[in-house]
Amino acid sequence: MTVTDPFDLLDIDSLLSDEERQIRETVARFVTDHVRPHVADWFEAGTFPRELAPELGKLGVLGMHLEGYGCAGTSAVAYGLACLELEAGDSGLRSFVSVQGSLAMFSIWKYGSEEQRREWLPRMAAGEAIGCFGLTEPDFGSDPANMRTRAVRDGGDWILNGSKMWITNGSIADVATVWAQTEDGIRGFLVPKDTPGFTTRTIKRKLSLRASITGELALDDVRLPGSAMLPGAAGLGAPLSCLSEARFGIVFGSVGAALDSLRTTIGYANNRIQFGRPIAAFQLTQGKLADMAVDLGTSALLALHLGRLKDAGRLKPHQISVGKLNNVRQALAIARECRGILGGSGITLEYSPLRHANNLESVVTYEGTSEIHTLVIGQTLTGHAAYR
């Protein structure tokens, strides 16, 4: 009996360069060696091991798609494939890397001063310093333009007041990129963790992304020097461009969660004997596996196409919305279906699909909900902004 891996069904590897395949395989080995043996325990305990950050730095995945300052400067496709393998381990792991590289580091790399870049980026690329991205607020998630956090000038300084919610890495970060309303519009500020008036709280009792640290940021008369402001960031477009970077990683990462779920389930189905034969030999099971493999393949091809567009400098925000909407939706459906094939065993942490499904319930919401991405696509098609 010949068994074909779901990722090989459409020979997707043939569309990758040797370097891209090597990067994917290197990250996959890291996940196998450093993540899979422990991730169920992390998920159950509701923690993310901060000591993993330097190891991820040595691996070269933190800010890997950025140029200079200790960053690897890889292609967008290579970064996407790394996200795929990281999320095959757990969405929390990919979220850590995405927030570090595509939100916190990217905001400094794209909009910071040279002094800010030199101060933070090399340490963040090495995993010696952790960053977070403070945009979402308790009352303003999908509508960041109406954020309540304010920054007011006081001589040469800025005084910040407000709060941010659902911030990945928030309570373990060494520096936060915080977005605030000013008299000149929305601006970004770098807030070191030990700044007086700046406090964080870890959000507990989560049912999703448990192997990830989620926090709340509070700013109470936080005084920052003028040099703390990101000089190149003016207006809402700046933080939204950072979100586009992170969403791109999700397009690939969600494929990884689906792939791991499907691989796990095929292995189980070939070994689970019922009525004298493996359940993989029954038509209903094969029908489910075939449908999921087709959906996985189309999602992977979509991710690769968007990655090629990004490397060519032609990727548009609405195309990222297509990728996130489709691929996360498909991944969640695959993880749920896989859990069903696993039966009672599927509700335990011994098998990954339900853990992936729980995580994807967050992924489908953060970095723009499915509803918002649907309306972004609708606006592109019709010219009408239905969410305003």
Quick synopsis:
The protein is of the alpha+beta class. It contains 11 helices and 11 strands. A hairpin with a 2-residue loop joins strand 6 (175-182) and strand 7 (185-192).
Secondary-structure map:
Blueprint: H1 18-35, H2 39-45, H3 52-59, E1 67-68, E2 71-72, H4 76-89, H5 91-111, H6 114-125, E3 131-134, E4 150-154, E5 157-168, E6 175-182, E7 185-192, E8 198-202, E9 214-225, H7 237-271, E10 273-274, E11 277-278, H8 283-311, H9 317-342, H10 353-363, H11 370-382
Parallel strand pairs: 3-6
Antiparallel strand pairs: 1-2, 4-5, 5-9, 6-7, 8-9, 10-11
Helix pairs in contact: 1-4, 4-5, 4-7, 5-6, 5-7, 7-8, 7-9, 7-10, 8-9, 9-10, 9-11
β content, as a range? Answer: 15-25%
CATH architecture annotation name of the largest domain: Up-down Bundle
Largest sheet, described in full? Answer: 4 strands, antiparallel
What is the multimeric organization of the chains shown? single chain
Q: End-to-end distance, in Å?
A: 56 Å
CATH superfamily of the largest domain: Butyryl-CoA Dehydrogenase, subunit A, domain 3
Class derived from helix and strand content = alpha+beta
Do you know the CATH topology of the largest domain? Butyryl-CoA Dehydrogenase, subunit A, domain 3
**What is the count of helical runs?**
11
Mean pLDDT: 96
Tally of individual domains: 3
Which CATH top level class of the largest domain fits?
Mainly Alpha
Low-confidence stretches: none
